[in-house]
């Protein structure tokens, strides 16, 4: 709730801000005393508002812009007792995050905005336990894949007049 948030002194109107978070988890035994599982799903939907204080005389419209941020996390795990002293664990994690209108605010206008989308997948398998009751051992394999994509609102040339305005493309892609 942004009821207590103040308006930026240079803003025409007070910008909205919101954050909504949800989490759901489930776990339990698959085989009593031998195998268990865990599943967790979580998400975030939020946005902030930046004030644009550009001094261009031909600028029209509101001087605030929302910056959305959406995130989704999924985690799954299975644990299995191989013996009295050894445990096998298999995990999969997936994370996705998307941010929009990054880089805008103060003297930087909307056409300099860019978006970022990031995804990460982690697969992990491990075996751990004790050897002869005196030593601990863990063997782990992990695979991580990360993807990130950037995209500019426009691809134009940048014009930056210090303490006045910053317009043009953000020149970000890939």
Structural description of this entry:
This protein has 174 residues and is mostly beta strands. It has no helices and eight strands. The strands form two sheets. A six-stranded antiparallel beta sheet has the order 1-2-3-4-5-6, with no helix packed on it. It has a two-stranded antiparallel sheet with strand order 7-8. The chain is elongated, with a radius of gyration of 24 Å. The mean pLDDT is 90.
Short structural description:
This protein is 0% helix and 62% strand.
Shape: elongated
Helix count equals: 0
Model regions low in confidence, pLDDT < 50 over at least 5 residues: none
Summarize the amount of helix as a percent range: under 10%
Span between N and C termini? 36 Å
Coarse structural class: mainly beta
> What is the N-to-C succession of helices and strands?
EEEEEEEE
Mind telling me the C-alpha Rg? 24 Å
Number of DSSP strand runs: 8
Cross-sheet strand order for the largest sheet: 1-2-3-4-5-6
The mean pLDDT is: 90
Range of strand content: over 45%
What is the makeup of the main sheet? 6 strands, antiparallel
Tags for this entry?
174 residues; two-stranded antiparallel ribbon; 0% helix
Break the fold down into its secondary structure elements and pairings:
Elements: E1 18-31, E2 35-51, E3 64-81, E4 86-102, E5 114-131, E6 135-152, E7 159-161, E8 165-167
Antiparallel strand pairs: 1-2, 2-3, 3-4, 4-5, 5-6, 7-8
